[in-house]
Design goal:
- The complex is a heterotrimer of chains A (231), B (220) and C (33).
- Chain A is mostly helical.
- Chain A has one domain (3-24, 34-212).
- Chain A contains six helices and no strands.
- Chain A has helices spanning 3-25, 38-66, 69-101, 109-130, 135-165, 178-212.
- The relative contact order of chain A is 0.16.
- The two termini of chain B are 20 Å apart.
- Chain B contains nine helices and no strands.
- With 33 residues, chain C is mainly alpha-helical.
- Chain C has one domain.
- Chain C contains one helix and no strands.
- Chain C starts with a helix and ends with a helix.
- The chains are: A mainly alpha (231), B mainly alpha (220), C mainly alpha (33).
- At the A-C interface, helix 1, helix 2, helix 3 and helix 6 of A face helix 1 of C.
Chain lengths: 231, 220, 33
């Protein structure tokens, strides 16, 4: 077992603990029944995905400031892991919505903005794949990552505003009972650790791939200063 | 160099080359009319439901015409490699970018000048100043974002594929607010004032953001 | 109930699949390195 495998095994073990707590410890919801247990991983994955996209945003900003390859690799890793986590969030959410709301999808602000989030970062990954690797791809990626992050709250806000123009289903958030809250917090912590391990592994992969393609930190070119004119 | 003058010069250059070839505007106009045709056959439109369907067809046609228009903004530069020459001049990239956006939005406005009367003609929806104002306000922000992403994908393979993927999600706020504005201007429920206010906010936000990003997109 | 199982089955498949895939990719790259 190498280092990455040990970390991965530890993260998986933590997720198994979270799974046991979700299915054995957490009480069954009085209104929704067992299907409410989707909530724990669904929301945790969403929060971890936002964390990953924050890494993309920060990586992009740092890259635009000083062209650091480390920042760009972090951004690449964050985008891929974030898209995987957003996919999990969306699919679990749809499977939860079907029995509770009677439909897989409604154009609610949160659903719409999560879908837009997914599309933007899937587009980010595509741009990275199609652009010439190196400075160009990194710059383009940084701009797309920053705009994507700005767009999501804007979409969320505009759909909320639009909803108040067209009254639609309203989701009421009740306060969680203590046991449910504890389960949720544990699941969230475990999911965040899993996401961090995934981003770190992806960062390693991106580093090795860069080395294979001979993309290295830009060498600072020091030009000789012109000799002072002799008076 | 005065950035405003640079922007105007870039816009004038683009519009003049369009005027010489007359490629884009006729193509876009035809595209828009075809979109209306498809809308007519895709939905069962009669005088009762035309009002609820027409705003949707308007935005569909506009968004896709916009993608075609912005996808071509850097075509000439790419074919003749003149962008590098432009960037080597002391003109600021933001000014060049603004000029490009200006020219592209003039083309889109020309296409709207066909779309809106055609919509009235074919679907019998009212053509009021309010509808025109909403569409024009949305054009401003859409042009800023569209030209920025056109500049981004100009140097990428499969750019025709990528431009819609990147641009459409960022246009959604404009379609939400613009759609609402057009709907209420055509007599459907909803507040027109609020929608227009939101459109102006989004315009300001994205024009500022794209001009901040222009340096990084065009520079190289 | 079946939706609950389906949802967690998908999550395990997606996250587990991604983890296994990236571990294999990492091992391949490290071997070549």
């Amino acid at each position: 077992m190498n280092r990455a495998e040990r970390w991965a095994a530890a993260a998986v073990a933590l997720m198994l603990v979270a799974g046991a707590v979700i299915f054995l410890y957490a009480p069954t919801d009085a209104l929704q029944g067992p299907v409410q247990r989707i909530f724990y991983l669904h929301v945790s994955a969403a929060i971890a995905a936002y964390g990953c996209f924050a890494v993309v945003l920060l990586g992009g900003i740092v890259y635009l400031r000083n062209e650091s390859l480390v920042a760009d690799r972090c951004a690449r890793a964050g985008a891929l892991v974030g898209v995987v986590l957003t996919t999990v969030t969306l699919v679990m959410g749809m499977l939860w919505a079907k029995p509770i709301w009677g439909t897989f999808w409604t154009w609610d602000a949160r659903l719409t903005s999560t879908l837009v989030l997914w599309i933007i970062y899937a587009g980010y990954l595509l741009v990275r794949r199609l652009a010439e690797p190196g400075r160009q791809a990194a710059r383009i990626g940084a701009v797309v990552g920053i705009f994507g992050f700005v767009d999501v709250p804007v979409v969320h806000f505009s759909v909320t505003w639009w909803r108040t123009q067209h009254p639609g289903p309203i989701i009421v958030n009740d306060a969680l009972p203590a046991q449910m809250l504890a389960t949720f917090l544990l699941t969230m912590a475990c999911t965040l650790i899993l996401a961090a391990v995934m981003v770190w592994m992806r960062y390693r992969i991106e580093t090795l791939m860069d080395e294979k393609q001979h993309i290295a930190e830009p060498v600072k070119v020091v030009t000789a200063r012109e000799p002072e004119p002799v008076p | 160099m005065n950035p405003f003058r640079v922007a105007l010069a870039v816009a004038r250059k683009d519009l003049r080359s369009e005027w010489r070839t007359r490629e884009m505007v006729p193509a876009l106009a035809q595209f828009v009319v075809l979109a209306l045709l498809i809308g007519n056959f895709g939905f069962q439109i009669d005088s009762r439901n035309a009002l609820t369907i027409a705003p949707g067809i308007l935005w569909m046609a506009l968004v896709f015409a916009g993608l075609v228009a912005f996808g071509r903004t850097f075509a000439a530069e790419r074919e003749q490699a003149s962008l590098d020459a432009m960037l080597m001049t002391p003109a600021s990239p933001v000014a060049i970018f603004a000029g490009k956006a200006l020219a592209a939005s003039v083309l889109l406005v020309a296409c709207e000048a066909v779309l809106l009367p055609a919509l009235t003609l074919f679907f019998g929806t009212p053509l009021s100043g309010e509808v025109v104002a909403a569409v024009l306000l949305a054009t401003v922000g859409m042009a800023a974002l569209g030209v920025m992403f056109a500049a981004i994908v100009a140097r990428v393979r499969a750019r025709e594929l990528l431009l819609p993927l990147l641009t459409l999600p960022l246009w959604i706020p404009f379609i939400v607010a613009g759609g609402q504005a057009v709907q209420s201007a055509m007599g459907l429920p909803g507040s027109y004032q609020e929608a227009i206010g939101l459109l102006i906010d989004f315009d300001i936000l994205f024009v500022v953001l794209t001009s901040l990003a222009a340096r990084f997109v065009l520079d190289e | 109930m079946s939706y609950l199982i389906l949802a967690y089955a998908f999550a395990i498949a997606a996250l587990g699949g991604y983890l296994v895939w990236s571990l294999r990719e990492l091992r391949d790259l490290e071997r070549k390195h």
